Amino acid sequence: MQYSILLSSLASLAAVSAQGVTGKLGDALVVSDNPQGIEYTATLPDSEKNTVRGFIKAIAGPGGKGLDYTVELSGLPDASLGPFLYHVHDQPVPEDGNCTKTLAHLDPTERGEDPPCDTTAPKTCQVGDLSGKFGKITASPFKASYNDLYTATKPGLGAFIGNRSVVVHYANKTRITCANFVASQISPNSSNITSPGTGATPGTTSPTAPLFEGSASTVAVSMSVALAGIVAAFFV
Fold first, then answer.
1. Backbone angles phi, psi at 178, to 5 degrees
2. Long-range Cβ contacts of 58-62 (<8 Å, 24+ apart)
3. Model pTM?
4. What is the pLDDT of residue 118?
5. Mean local confidence (pLDDT), 149-175
6. Residue 157 in contact with residue 31, Cβ under 8 Å?
7. CA-to-CA distance for 100 and 47, rounded, in angstroms?
């Protein structure tokens, strides 16, 4: 009987572990009421410091569910410095154009950057980690389109992108360029991107998890402690 309970407890812990690492405040929530007719575009600036140009656009998905993104970038540095990353960052780009001042990724669930995003469980990823959820930049020019269920154009939500920015990074996390999202009015019927939950358009690299810096995850430690406690309870 004791062994059956032990095995059941171990199986339950394994199931929880398999669900992926989530934030301190839980998983990201699906946004189902984004307003129609508003488009947010982050257009990368012309600069003598780099050659990266392009834009990231976001509009409400069908029925307001999630956001449909269109990403078009060109002029990326040598491929040996990639694959390149891009994220929605918490703060806007200031007037001096300093990308460092955009601070960290948009992360309303307080997940943190470590461990890397699990592409099979996007609700457990940082909300702003677009390249983690939908694929790094592996070619120049680069194009992708997808629906992200967890970002918002509805003001007042922690996942709102309208007052935030996009930052493009080298593989080592150094920031290359950045731009603020700017709103514009469009026809409510303009959304014709992929259906919710789909990945990048054909021809782009399949999503892979980037390497992140930051505080180490405590999940493995917590699991070890929990397992040790269960085993001890049955064999002491």
1. -160, 160
2. 58/151, 58/153, 58/161, 58/181, 59/153, 59/186, 59/190, 59/191, 59/193, 60/34, 60/35, 60/36, 60/153, 60/191, 61/34, 61/147, 61/149, 61/191, 61/193, 61/196, 62/191, 62/195, 62/196
3. 0.73
4. 95
5. 97
6. yes
7. 16
